[in-house]
Design brief:
DNA-binding; 2 domains; elongated; 8 helices; 225 residues; 5-stranded parallel sheet; alpha/beta; Arc Repressor Mutant, subunit A; Rossmann fold; transcription regulation; 4-stranded antiparallel sheet
Length: 225
């Protein structure tokens, strides 16, 4: 899962980033309005943690920009401005939740998990396709009810496709979603090929009825046999 933190407080941003990365999220940062705007224009995120008071603009204006771009992204407002007016305005503009500062990281994690689960799978705690089952809260993968061991990126790739069964995903989109939005600095996607190859081998050996099919020159999609 890919999260963008829009926060001008360097210490809070770094502490929150480190905490989320321990939970195996892919995290990007924006310390100001301009950086955040560039990122939401160029990339897609599963969740945005949005401060209202930024040095060069308002987080509420970023909600307007998300609407204008037609992007339906989960947004949790994190702000010291714990006024009813800000809360109502943010929710009216499309934010999904509001957590006042200072916040406990454990509560933030719970809010993110609840929000992602509710929006992606209507509250289900399992993601299933064919005979493959993923339990995101536990980072477990099962094929035909038998647990399969995957490394972190193999797991991230599989979950990304399990949430988008049958959808063709190009290599750059996959790289940005699983490795972060600095992926445009790399020269090639050889690292993706290696991870996909290993994942396909593990699924086949486990007897999975779904497979990652390569579409030459474009990308991959998860399909059932």
């Amino acid at each position: 899962m890919k999260i963008l933190i829009v926060e001008d407080d360097n210490d809070l941003r770094e502490i929150t980033t480190a905490s989320l990365e321990k939970e195996r999220y892919v995290v990007s940062q924006a310390p100001d309005y301009r950086t955040a705007l560039l990122k939401i224009e160029d990339y897609d995120y599963d969740c945005i943690l949005l401060d209202i008071m930024l040095p060069d603009g308002s987080g509420l204006d970023l909600l307007h920009e998300l609407q204008a771009l037609g992007k339906r992204t989960n947004v949790i407002i994190l702000s010291a401005k714990d006024s009813l007016e800000d809360k109502v305005q943010g929710l009216d503009l499309g934010a999904d939740d509001y957590l006042p500062k200072p916040y406990h990281l454990a509560e933030l994690h719970a809010r993110i998990k609840s929000l992602l689960r509710r929006n992606q799978r209507e509250g289900e705690r399992k993601v299933q396709y064919g005979n493959i089952e993923i339990i995101p809260d536990l980072f477990k993968v099962k094929v035909a009810d038998k647990e399969v061991e995957l490394n972190r990126k193999e797991y991230d790739i599989l979950l990304y496709f399990m949430l988008r069964p049958g959808r063709l995903v190009n290599k750059s989109t996959l790289a940005e979603s699983v490795w972060g939005d600095h992926i445009d600095q790399v020269d090639n996607f050889d690292f993706i090929y290696a991870q996909i190859k290993n994942l396909r081998k593990r699924l086949k050996e486990a007897g999975a009825t779904a497979e990652l099919k390569a579409v030459y020159g474009v990308g991959y999609k998860l399909i059932t046999e």
